Amino acid sequence: MTTHAPGPAASSPELPSLLPGVLRVDPDTADPARRGRVRRSVRDWIVDTLCFVIAILIGLTTYDSAMQNDPPELVQLLDLCVGALACLSLWWRRRWPVQLAVVVALLCIGVSSAAGAAVILMFTVAVHRRWAVAVAVAAVNVVTGLLFYGVYPDPVLAFRWTILLTGSLVAAVTLWGMLVRSRRQLVLSLRERAYQAENEAALRVERARHLERERIAREMHDVLAHRISLLSVHAGALEYRPDAPREDVVNAAGVIRASAHQALQDLREIIGVLRAPSSDDDPDRPQPTLAQLPPLVDESRQAGMRVTVVDELAGDGAEPPPVVARCAYRVVQEALTNVRKHAPGTGVYVTLTGGPGGGLAVEVRNRMPVGAGEPGTSLDIPGTGTGLIGLAERVELAGGSLEHGITRDGDFRVHAWLPWPA
After folding, report:
1. Euclidean distance between CA atoms 150 and 162, whole angstroms
2. Beta strand pairing status for 411-418 and 401-406?
3. Model's pTM, two decimal places?
4. Strand, coil or helix: what is 406?
5. What spatial distance separates the first Cα and last Cα of the chain, rounded to whole Å?
6. Where is the segment annotated Disordered (predicted)?
7. Which CATH number fits domain 289-422: 3.30.565.10, 3.30.70.1450, 3.40.47.10, 3.20.20.70?
8. What is the mean pLDDT of each run of 10 residues along the chain (422 residues)?
9. Nearest-angstrom CA–CA distance, 295 and 318
C-alpha cells in the first residue's frame, strides 16, 4: 500500500505542486535506512530509550528463569554480554529491522538475556514492514523460542504449555505491531487527503482567477472596441476634410470628446462591476440590456452607418432575463463594431425575434463584399480577430448558440439564439 507523508522538497506526481511539502512515501521504506541518515527527534530518543529499558527488563527476567538450571559461570557471563550487545543493537533497529530481528532471534536459541531485544525487534518489523515479512519473522521467533526451551527447559511448565505460551506471546506482539502500522497508514492517508483537498482548493482559486481575467478581457473588448471605433470614424472624417466649416469641426470635436468621456465612464463601470462579487440578479450592476439598444444604434448612425432595426419581439413588452438581454446587447454591439472596422459604408440590418418560451433570436446582417465606401469613411482600424470567438463563448455561457459567416446572397450574417424561459 502506498501512502503519503510530508516531505521537505518533493511533491506528489499525481497532483499539481501548488502546495510545498507533499512527499510520496512508501511506508515500507519510510525508515532512515532507505531515506538516508537523519537526525533523531526528541520523540525518537524517548521511544528508543524506553525500548532499550524494556528490552533489558525482559532480558533479565528471562535470564533469571533460564539460570535456574545452574549453567557454568562462563556461560552465564557470555549470556549477559551477548544479551547486552543485542539490546545495544536496538539503536539501529530503524535502519536494519529485519536483519537485526533474524540475527537476534537466532541468538535467542542459546542466549536468554537477548529475549527482550528479540521482542522489540519483532514489534519493529511488524510496524515498518509488510505483513508477509512480519509473519515470517514471527515464525522464526516461534521456532527459536521452542529451541530455547529445548536448551533451557522450564522446570514448572510442561513443554506443550511452553509452546502455547511462546506462540501466544509472538502472535500478540506481531498483531500489536500490525495494529500500530495500520493506524499510521490511516493517519498518513488522512493527511494525504488533507493535502489533496488543499491542492484542489488552490486549483479552484487559480481557475477562478483565470476565469475572472477572461471575463475582464471580454468586457473590455466589448466596451472599448465599440467606443474607440466611433472615435476613429469621427477622427477620420476630420482628417479627410481639414477645410470643413468651423461649425462642423466643432461638432465633430464635441462628438469625439463625448465619446472619449463615455469610453472612460464605461471603463470605470466595468472595473467596478468586475471588482464586485458576481451576481446576475444584482439590480445595481450597471450592465446594458435591450433597453439600451436604441442609444447604441443612434451612436452608430451618428458615425455615418445606415442601421435598420426590426423589432419583432412578442410577449407584450415582457423583458428577457438580465443575462439574456445583456448577451443580446453585446451581440449587436460587437456586430456593429465589426461592420465599422471591416465593412464601412454598408447598410446594416438588425432583427430581433422571439418571445417567452420560444427563445430570443438576434440577427445582424450587412452586405459583402463592400466597396471603398464614402469619402472619409474608409478606415484601417486594427482588430485582434477574436471578437466573434469571445462572443461565441459569451453566448454559450448564456445557454445559447452563435452562427456567423457569408450567406449565399453575399451577406455577412451574425445570428445568435438565446433561451428565453416562459
Report:
1. 10
2. antiparallel
3. 0.44
4. strand
5. 56
6. 276-298
7. 3.30.565.10
8. 39 39 42 51 81 84 76 80 85 85 85 84 87 87 81 72 81 87 88 88 81 69 69 70 74 76 71 55 58 86 85 78 87 87 85 89 82 43 63 85 89 92 82
9. 20
Indicate the residue type of 318. Answer: A
Residue 189 DSSP one-character state? H
Domain boundaries, the chain: 3-202, 289-422
Tell me, what's the pLDDT at 375? 37
DSSP string computed for 336-355: HHHHHHHSTT-EEEEEEEEE
Residue 244, judged by CB atoms within 10 A of its CB (0-12, 13-18, 19+), counts as middle
Q: Are strands 359-367 and 347-355 parallel, antiparallel or unpaired?
A: antiparallel
- Grid cell, residue 378, equals 474608409
- Distance between CA atoms of 35 and 25, rounded to whole angstroms? 10
| Spatial contact of 356 and 207, defined as CB atoms under 8 Å apart | no
Asked if residue 295 has a cis previous peptide bond (ω within 30° of 0), the answer is no
Q: Determine the residue type at 3.
A: T
Calculate ∠ Cα 116-117-120, nearest 5°.
Answer: 90
CA 80, CA 94: separation in Å to the nearest integer? 24
Residue 399 is given by DSSP the state T
Give the burial class of 315: count Cβ atoms within 10 A of its Cβ; 0-12 exposed, 13-18 middle, 19 or more buried.
middle
SS3 percent helix, strand, coil of the chain, rounded to 5, is 60, 10, 25
Place of cell 485582434: 384
Q: Which amino acid is at 109?
A: I
Long-range contact pairs involving 18-26 (C-beta distance under 8 Å, separation at least 24): 18/199, 18/202, 18/203, 18/206, 19/195, 19/198, 19/199, 19/202, 22/192, 22/195, 22/199, 25/188, 26/2
Contacts of 233 (CB under 8 A, 6+ apart): 303, 304, 340, 344, 377, 379
